[in-house]
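Suppose you are handed only these lines of text.
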Amino acid sequence: HLSLRLQTVADFVQPGARLADIGSDHAYLPVHLAKQGLLTKAVAGEVVRGPYENAVSEIEKEGLENVIMAHLADGLAAIKPEDQIDTITIAGMGGTLITQILDAGVDRLRHEERLILQPNVGEDNVRQWLQNHDYGIIAERILAEDGHIYEIIVADPVDTPTTFNPTQLKFGPFLLQEKSPVLQDKWRKEQARLDDVIATMQHAQQAPQAKIDAFIAQRNQIQEVIL
Ligand code: SAM
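From them, the structure of the protein bound to S-adenosylmethionine can be written out as follows.
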């Protein structure tokens, strides 16, 4: 069975989808969905040979070669027009890397694909990218598993996306409305980290005051918005 993190990503893949899972590693996500008969077709893309071979053997082990194609390719280069991909998942990497993959492959997007993105950090970069490229966020999830907190951002193509303010981009428009205990936990930890940074800088008496003030502002924003 899948981790809660990947299962939550999988929950947003619509039945019958034509899925591209980019950075698929063992291809656990498409294999799990295909075993349940939920995919018409899938591509498992990997840029590194080891993980690509993991994907190939997992697909063969489950006898799913006719549904899932593993491709050794950089980012969205794994997607061919004839695949008619309608859903793209990119999970388990930093938000900056996710936006780099989307930027590098923007020509491959038909602006018809649902994007289900699970950045490990840098979620604000992902939300900003979506807004800049006419993708509307339709759902967000936050969850804790094995001592980590993960966010999942789901977006569909739109003509004119809602413009989010910097606070919404940072914390997540849906997550802010919900303000779950997991969200509070995540930002309480970030606040504690900032407090350490501020204390260290003040103690060292070398950092410019403007820099310290910027960290204090971040710390206070978390207090005001989340806690
Ligand atoms: N998606 C799986 C998950 O969430 O469990 C695997 C995550 S794994 C930590 C990240 C994978 O992304 C690695 O296997 C890495 O090789 C792959 N990756 C990184 N950059 C990539 C790129 N530009 N194109 C395709 N795969 C990439």
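What can we learn from it? The longest strand covers residues 135-145. The chain is about 45% helix and 25% strand.
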